[in-house]
From TrEMBL:
Lineage summary: Eukaryota, Metazoa, Spiralia, Lophotrochozoa, Mollusca
Keyword Oxidoreductase in annotation: yes
Transmembrane segments: 12-32
Residues the record lists as binding heme: C452
Protein name as annotated: Cytochrome P450
Record keywords, A-Z: Heme, Iron, Membrane, Metal-binding, Monooxygenase, Oxidoreductase, Transmembrane, Transmembrane helix
């Protein structure tokens, strides 16, 4: 080898020496950078056990979903405001779960990090995944879709869907059999969102125990979450070669075909009949007619992205909230009775059992029940942000590029923020009990400029559906069924929730 090198011309020798020197210099520079990078993040509060391949992820490998949730809670108790967690050897994440640390991030418009981009083939750059100017433009264009005048007619749709849900549950009640809550509620909330978003009328709740769209969304969110926990699947090319990647893309094709067929049908209707004369504007009407300050509307892909985003966020998270609230009420009959008494009082003397727009502000106790249910079983357990501007968290100056996870579930169970955090107690949301509470202590819809644009829509729907259910039935848990929590972007039950419904009237 030495002989071969000496036989080279001086010019070639110089080139080789130069290339080798450059490589060595770059490697040394990278090693120095990584040493500084690792030293900075490893000095932050967090676990010291470190794997060269997995970072800290090896500590949760093999854990059941419930065990992972407990492990995260234990870490929160050990580090009450934030901690560092290595997602592989090169990706530290900061977990925030106290109002003091969460506030600093949520009051900004910082973008979503890489893990959200894993959902791009599904949701595109809709409002959930968009950043920067694209997000700001979409937010301005979509805000009118959630004006109170637009939301008002949707209450009647929630009532119609609730009646179909009552009919389905009545069959189980008549046979004195338990029913699986998530399945029933998911079909109801999908029915609501399909009608409110796109005036799509189909036999969604009568088509069987589930719907292909619900199955697709459940699998997509599961695959999305699992990919985020495995650094070896971060590369798009590698992921597409795996069975999980192929399943993900297959389900993407299905949800896109559904949304595109509905969009195209509406476009053809508009071309044929002109503006709709129906009683209310839906989300798709506003998408198709919205114009920005330059007179530009949304193109076909942007419209599909927003429809896919709204269908996912508008049905899945709401179904989670309602299901877990029913679960908590079934565990606590005293609170269920108080909520029933309030709904009964609001509907007393009326010639209809529908909960109308004017009834919603009267449901004070039910509102506290909903908030407490979302605190205890937060529908969206965590959200994430990427630091693009220098920020300071608890005196620590975070560099640009820092990756932060806001653990809403742990924030809502933080014993330094909430008394008896594991106890279901709607009275904690009485005005006197909340007057001194930090506004960032309870943020189920996020907060700040990137909060959930549809939170009023969701709250209205939850009041109607829960109110109608509680007016009609009393719920008790099926004691032979074990409920296990599962986090996959949305808080679900690994094996569902089963309960009995007893007619009250």
């Amino acid at each position: 080898m030495v002989f071969g090198f000496t036989m080279m011309s001086p010019l070639v020798q110089a080139a080789v020496v130069l290339v080798v020197t450059v490589v060595i210099v770059q490697v040394v520079r990278w090693l120095l950078w990584y040493r500084s990078f690792f030293k900075f993040y490893n000095a932050l509060p967090g676990e010291t056990s470190f794997s060269l391949l997995w970072g800290n992820l090896h500590m949760i490998k093999g854990m059941e979903p419930e065990q992972r949730l407990q492990y995260g809670y234990d870490l929160m108790c050990k580090y009450p405001k934030f901690y560092r967690f290595w997602l592989g050897p090169f990706r530290p994440a900061l977990a925030l779960f106290h109002a003091d640390t969460v506030r600093e991030l949520l009051k900004t418009s910082e973008p979503k990090p890489q893990m959200y981009y894993f959902a791009l083939p599904w949701l595109g750059t809709g409002l959930l995944l968009a950043n920067g100017d694209r997000w700001a433009r979409s937010r301005r264009l979509l805000t009118p879709a959630f004006h109170f005048d637009i939301l008002k007619p949707y209450v009647a749709i929630s009532n119609q869907a609730s009646q179909l849900l009552l009919n389905r549950i009545s069959k189980s009640a008549a046979e004195k059999q338990s029913f699986e809550v998530f399945g029933h509620i998911s079909l109801c909330t999908l029915d609501v969102i399909m009608q409110c978003a796109m005036s799509y009328h189909d036999n969604i709740q009568g088509a069987g125990e589930t719907h292909p769209y619900v199955q697709a969304v459940n699998e997509l969110s599961d695959l999305w979450f699992e990919r985020g926990r495995n650094p070896f699947l971060y590369n798009d090319l590698i992921y597409k070669l795996t069975s999980s990647g192929r399943r993900f893309l297959k389900q993407c094709q299905y949800v896109h075909s559904l949304s595109e067929s509905i969009i195209q049908a509406r476009k053809h209707q508009l071309e044929k009949d002109g503006p709709s004369k129906k009683r209310y504007l839906d989300f798709l009407d506003i998408l198709l007619t919205a114009k920005d300050e330059n007179g530009q509307g949304l193109n076909s892909l942007e419209i599909r992205n927003e429809v896919d985003t709204f269908l996912f966020e508008g049905h899945d998270t709401t179904a989670s909230a309602i299901s877990w609230i029913l679960y908590s009420l079934a565990q606590h009959p005293e609170y269920q009775q108080r909520a029933q008494a309030e709904v009964d009082a609001v509907l007393e003397g009326k010639d209809t059992e529908q909960i109308e727009w004017g009834d919603l502000p009267k449901l004070d106790y039910l509102t506290m029940v909903i908030k407490e249910g979302m605190r205890l079983h937060c529908p969206v357990p965590f959200i994430q942000r990427q630091i693009t501007q220098p920020a300071t968290i608890e005196g620590v100056k975070l560099p640009v590029g820092a990756f932060c996870t806001i653990h809403l579930l742990n924030l809502h169970h933080n014993p330094t923020v909430w008394d008896d955090p594991w106890t279901f107690d709607p009275d904690r949301f009485l005005p006197d009990n909340m007057k001194d509470k930090d506004t960032y202590a309870f943020v189920p819809f996020s907060a700040g400029p990137r909060n959930c644009i549809g939170q009023h829509f969701a709250m209205n729907e939850e009041k109607v559906v829960l109110g109608r259910l509680l007016h009609k039935f009393t719920f008790t848990l099926d004691k032979d069924h074990v409920v296990k929590r599962k986090v996959a972007g949305v808080m679900r039950a690994e094996n569902g929730i089963k309960m009995f419904a007893t007619p009250r009237r």
